[in-house]
Amino acid sequence: MQFFSSDFKLGILGGGQLGKMMLYETRKWDIYTKVMDASPEAPCKIACNEFVEGSLMDFDAVYNFGKDVDVLTIEIENVNLDAMEKLEHEGITVYPPTKTLRTIQNKATQKLFYTDHGIPTSSFTRFAYTSEIEDSISNGGLQLPFVWKSAQFGYDGQGVKVVRKMDDLKGLPNVECIAENLVDFKNELAVIVARSSTGEIKTYPVVEMEFHPEANQVEYVICPARIDDAVAQKAKDVALKVSEHMKHVGLLAVELFQTHNDEILVNEVAPRPHNSGHYSIEASYTNQFEQHIRAILGLPLGKTDSKVAGIMVNLVGAEGHTGDVVYENIASILEMDGVTPHIYGKRQTRPFRKMGHVTIVDEDMTRAREVAQKVKETIKVMTNK
Amino acid sequence: MQFFSSDFKLGILGGGQLGKMMLYETRKWDIYTKVMDASPEAPCKIACNEFVEGSLMDFDAVYNFGKDVDVLTIEIENVNLDAMEKLEHEGITVYPPTKTLRTIQNKATQKLFYTDHGIPTSSFTRFAYTSEIEDSISNGGLQLPFVWKSAQFGYDGQGVKVVRKMDDLKGLPNVECIAENLVDFKNELAVIVARSSTGEIKTYPVVEMEFHPEANQVEYVICPARIDDAVAQKAKDVALKVSEHMKHVGLLAVELFQTHNDEILVNEVAPRPHNSGHYSIEASYTNQFEQHIRAILGLPLGKTDSKVAGIMVNLVGAEGHTGDVVYENIASILEMDGVTPHIYGKRQTRPFRKMGHVTIVDEDMTRAREVAQKVKETIKVMTNK
């Protein structure tokens, strides 16, 4: 099948940042794309060949969108699976397969999947309703502290909460949920596994999330992770085991905990390009977006090695600033060697809103890390006031 | 001035391949773009924010297009300069400046510029009409062989001709032209110079065009050129001298001849991203398109070094094939490490039509060169028949 400058049509559900970066690759190869997103301001509205405004959770919208594409993929998991399943049955190629998405979309199902397949993950308890948790604690079934997670997506901003005392349960939605052991980890790692429709599999190097000492927030994604080879190998093995059992097609980003005794536990996965792989645009021989396209089209997978060390810094809105965005000192970071900002194009900023990311590449990791810190300290996402 | 996610508007004259690759960068930085091209099928029609259909040589079209942009640039020199000059006078920022474009657009003026500024170039004679050449030869003024070049652009496919015998003059348009000494060169080199509106200047490494032994056609663009450092330095010095006197803003691609006694002669220049810089997308810390944007917006110039060795192969239509394009064996080249095809998206191929390019990158130049040859021998741009 010819994908390039032909009548082939690729459908993408979701027109956000990941979709936008995927479109650089479809443009590079002149692959015809059709994108659906609920927002008329979606970043993908330009650069795709056809744009459809519609809700990703709406059966009819997704079904009608997918009917005339050759291959259907996603840039976000939160889509209507019944519609995708119907499309699958009617012969549309859907990657990742609906089955994979069903396993991942519900966090309780996802955790059960790990335990069923002997994949190491933090222990957890499943609840039909949040309201059942109090009883379970009072009769000694569940211990504080734990991480509360709603099973389904879409509770914006309140899908996850660390519960240290009974009071923390107040205000949580009364929905299907899980209570996870709070893992006291040494490192948070991630491995992106690419699996093609032909079954070919490749892994990217293990990356490390470096957290801010005080604010418990990821500050840097570092490739390669600064860990022992043995731990890195263990992380890859666990990621490959997840990939093998999930039978995804496309990318699978596997987020992992490295415990203090170097155990590797799966935190969660995403069956698509992922924030932890953004460094690959500047650092890798094959960036994650091109790799996802290669995988779902059954093309040979590209080399996953890095040309140079890569670090990614998220650009989030500064506290106390809400309104028209201004990227303060962006010219100063452009003066630094190997620094590439990616601006997501949201006109409005607000505290902690994800507005873009910056990649820092260098032959030398130590120098890259120093530049990354300078970048972090220099650029500010704020408003004019 | 804020360029990112703001009301700033960048105008680009020309919506072809170079414009398309420039748009990857404006998208990356969320810079609002308005593009004009004569063809409704122009590759830039998508991925820009506004597309205007109009002739680049038409005064009114260019003038009306440029009136509401903040900065106006080009992806091709063949544009209406009177309109750009009027826009300049009315306060629109035009980069490269019209003055630079006037010097370059007319090949006789361009050659005179080199001699006036003591820049080494092959000797030449200027003629008001091609018809004057015969007399000049018969009365011993001009010697065969020489290279005939029409002074003005736009004689598609017949702007340049090597004249070895009187007969070769037949059928040439009777226009203003030059007769250039035929240079017997050892290497054809190129140096891309970036000059920002602030005056900052950076050069990319010297690249080498490797020609096919029989067909006298560029097969590979190789970065860095496999030449002595002394020659490379001389090439950079000549390119910088041209840049300094041209006072361009943005990129200047300087094509050079290295003679058998290692003289460096300027062949011609292009004040924009150039085919000889395509390797930079995969190989350089800052690709040429991002660099052009940095330069015309007065942002700091990026690092021009390479992460790895880079080689570019042009993808041209195979002989004997005219019609709907098929990229034969493209999957086979995707199996090779460090290989990235760029498909320009023309639906129709014809012999020698430029349909795309392929970049090969590797830590090791020798290996890169081997892979480049395999790529060249493997992929074929043809039709289904």
Automatic annotation (TrEMBL), chains A, B:
Keywords: ATP-binding, Ligase, Nucleotide-binding, Purine biosynthesis
GO function terms (MF aspect): 5-(carboxyamino)imidazole ribonucleotide synthase activity
Record-listed E.C. numbers: 6.3.4.18
Pathway: Purine metabolism; IMP biosynthesis via de novo pathway; 5-amino-1-(5-phospho-D-ribosyl)imidazole-4-carboxylate from 5-amino-1-(5-phospho-D-ribosyl)imidazole (N5-CAIR route): step 1/2
Catalysed transformations (reactions): 5-amino-1-(5-phospho-beta-D-ribosyl)imidazole + hydrogencarbonate + ATP = 5-carboxyamino-1-(5-phospho-D-ribosyl)imidazole + ADP + phosphate + 2 H(+)
InterPro entries (UniProt xref): ATP-grasp (IPR011761), ATP-grasp_carboxylate-amine (IPR003135), ATP_grasp_subdomain_1 (IPR013815), PreATP-grasp_dom_sf (IPR016185), PurK (IPR005875), PurK_C (IPR040686), PurT/PurK_preATP-grasp (IPR054350), Rudment_hybrid_motif (IPR011054)
Keyword Nuclease: no
Binding-site positions, ATP: K107, K149, E180, N181, L182, V183, E188, N267, E268
Segments forming a coiled coil: none
Enzyme class: ligase
Domain ATP-grasp: start-end pairs: 111-297
Subunit structure: Homodimer.
Family the entry assigns: Belongs to the PurK/PurT family.
Function: Catalyzes the ATP-dependent conversion of 5-aminoimidazole ribonucleotide (AIR) and HCO(3)(-) to N5-carboxyaminoimidazole ribonucleotide (N5-CAIR). Catalyzes the ATP-dependent conversion of 5-aminoimidazole ribonucleotide (AIR) and HCO(3)- to N5-carboxyaminoimidazole ribonucleotide (N5-CAIR).
Name assigned to this protein: N5-carboxyaminoimidazole ribonucleotide synthase
